[in-house]
Design brief:
Length: about 425
């Protein structure tokens, strides 16, 4: 729909919420992202948006309502522009109350703006819709009517399997695509397809259809082997605790295993539950319901994920990366900045640029969220005593070229020789 609107010359802004990253789980980046999209298609809008930012240098510290007025609603209203705003997966936004209130309060002041919102019908969203005039809520089933998409998908994925196998999967799927996708992956890998299908068809008392197939998929991934289960749990802890999505190659660099193929083999085993196009593409959970399953002790059982342990692992490994990076001797380069930059680029390549960037941006966050902060204190003190100055020096020189995140004050506060960790 968005592609068609853009092709038709409509002014379209968009934002996609996702619990996979801290940037897309909240409204913090919503107004700036939407306004940037609008500005890229209309020079007059860009001028008004830039003027607001120049007049309000602290605009990032303003409330959501003030940002929305200054960056989105105000420019559209002044220029009397017709526009479309699309918001996907509203249910995955953690602080959506203020967003919904702002959209409701400003709706009448920008009558030429049309908004399309998708998301699961959570109770607060349904209640909001009922209280706002001029909003219509419809399910996809109402919009699309009956369709054969899931059936066609299953037949395509299992085209080399007998038709009776295909039909049994179609019946069990009951139109649920996520279930069909996982089932087709599991059946494609099964040595005994009938036994695996019987396992998928077996009713589970008091367990939802998706929870049941998640358990089957994890059981296959771990192969009922306890060491394998522990490794898979640790990888999942890290994936769920990450602030931004990383690729397999990045995860290898920031993982605690010296054997590089441990992560690759683990991700391969979890292939039916993850989305990853290749070693350098971001790893994502297949669906938000898988995250909800893993983080519920009652539903996940022995596969339960405690995010605090994932934060601990990521904090420890981030400090290891920064310590290794900061220990490189650069004194021999003297004033030869060009030679230093070449050597520095080689260091980035050897360490893994994205993993170094991630460690620089996120180590303090993971320390704060860790389950055992005291265990990290020796690593933190070692880094601050031996590598902090080198790290600050190098990151400062690269900050204008590479995106190494927030100012140093957001990572450590140094005052009169006293170190204060921000947690």
């Amino acid at each position: 729909m968005v592609e068609k609107w853009v092709k038709d010359g409509r002014l379209v802004g968009r934002f996609f919420f996702s619990r996979d990253t801290t940037e897309t789980i909240s409204t913090r980046e919503f107004c700036s992202t939407v306004s940037t999209t609008f500005a890229s298609k209309d020079h007059d809008l860009k001028r008004h948006i830039d003027e607001f930012k120049e007049q309000q240098l602290d605009w990032k510290q303003l409330s959501f309502e003030q940002q929305y007025e200054g960056l989105v609603a105000g420019p559209l209203r002044v220029l009397n522009r017709r526009a479309i705003l699309t918001i996907d997966a509203l249910d995955e936004c953690e602080d959506r109350i203020e967003l919904m209130k702002t959209l409701r309060d400003m709706q009448s002041s920008i009558p030429l703006l049309r908004t399309l919102i998708t998301g699961r019908p959570e109770a607060d969203i349904k209640q909001w819709v009922m209280k706002v005039d001029g909003i219509r809520m419809a399910s996809f089933r109402e919009l699309e009517g009956h369709n054969q998409d899931v059936e066609n998908y299953i037949r395509s994925r299992l085209e080399d399997k007998p038709s009776d196998i295909q039909q049994r999967v179609i019946r069990r799927a009951e139109g649920l695509f996520i279930w069909a996708r996982i089932a087709c992956d599991l059946l494609s890998q099964a040595l005994d397809i009938n036994s695996r299908l019987e396992e998928l068809e077996r009713p589970s008392e008091g367990v939802s259809k998706l929870d049941s197939i998640y358990r089957v998929a994890l059981k296959q991934a771990t192969q009922d082997d306890e060491p394998s289960r522990q490794i898979i749990i640790l990888v999942l802890q890290m994936l769920l605790a990450m602030r931004t999505q990383l690729s397999i190659a990045d995860l290898v660099e920031i993982s605690p295993w010296s054997e590089k193929d441990v992560v690759q083999r683990t991700i391969a085993r979890l292939g039916s539950l993850l989305i990853s196009q290749g070693p350098n593409d971001p790893i994502r959970l297949l669906h938000i319901t898988f995250r909800e399953f893993l983080t519920s002790r009652e539903r996940a059982g022995k596969y339960f994920i405690q995010l605090r342990f994932g934060h601990y692992t990521l904090a420890r490994e981030s400090l290891r990366i920064l310590g290794h990076y900061s220990s490189s001797d650069i004194n021999s380069f003297g004033g030869h900045s060009e030679r230093w930059c070449i050597q520095f680029d080689e260091t980035l390549i050897n360490l893994g640029f994205r993993s170094l960037e991630y460690a620089s941006n996120s180590w303090a966050h993971h320390c704060a969220e860790s389950c055992v902060r005291l265990a990290l204190n020796p690593l933190i003190l070692e880094f601050t005593n031996n590598g902090l100055r080198t790290w600050i020096s190098r990151i400062t020189q690269l900050h204008s070229v590479y995106s190494f995140g927030p100012p140093i004050k957001d990572v450590l506060l140094l005052s009169h020789g006293n170190m204060v960790i921000p947690f």
